[in-house]
Amino acid sequence: MIASGRYRAGLAAAFTLPLLLSLPAVAAELVMYTRNGCPFCVRFEREIAPVYARTPEGKAAPLRRINLPAGGVRGEGLREPVIATPTFVLVDKGEEIGRITGYLNDDMFWGLLGRLVAVIESPDQVQRSGTRTQ
């Protein structure tokens, strides 16, 4: 017997809804704009990427990679175009909160990212520029 469309939709909802409710809601993400052959992207992938998801920052803003096309990207909630790689853009609710352009070393990355993530974790105490309010 073939199930009707209404039955299949109900069956799918019965199995999918509990699964969706058990997943954590993710409002923020760290978008990494990368390009093949970028030596600083390779260094980031070697030094940071293996541990990123297990850190508090990685849990607050999961990493998503986007291959940067020639000419860069504009719009899509960005404050300004992305033209260099790697560029890390912290996005919350579809809007850019801040960015890190380039990658030199892990200390620099974690320090800058910590300031950005603080904005999404306590927006009432931290302005969008990353400076604390008085």
Kindly describe this structure:
This protein is an alpha+beta fold. The chain has five helices and four strands. A four-stranded mixed β-sheet has the order 2-1-3-4, covered by helices on one side. A hairpin with a 2-residue loop joins strand 3 and strand 4. The N and C termini lie far apart (68 Å).
What does the radius of gyration come to?
19 Å
Tell me the helix content: 25-40%
Mass-distribution shape: globular
Number of DSSP helices? Answer: 5
Please tell me the overall pLDDT: 79
SSE class: alpha+beta
What are the segments in which pLDDT stays under 50 over at least 5 consecutive residues? 1-25, 125-134
Main sheet summary? 4 strands, mixed
* E-strand count: 4
Q: Can you list the strand order of the major beta sheet? A: 2-1-3-4
Measure the end-to-end span: 68 Å
Q: Give the helices and strands as they follow along the chain.
A: HEHHHEEEH
Strand content range? 15-25%
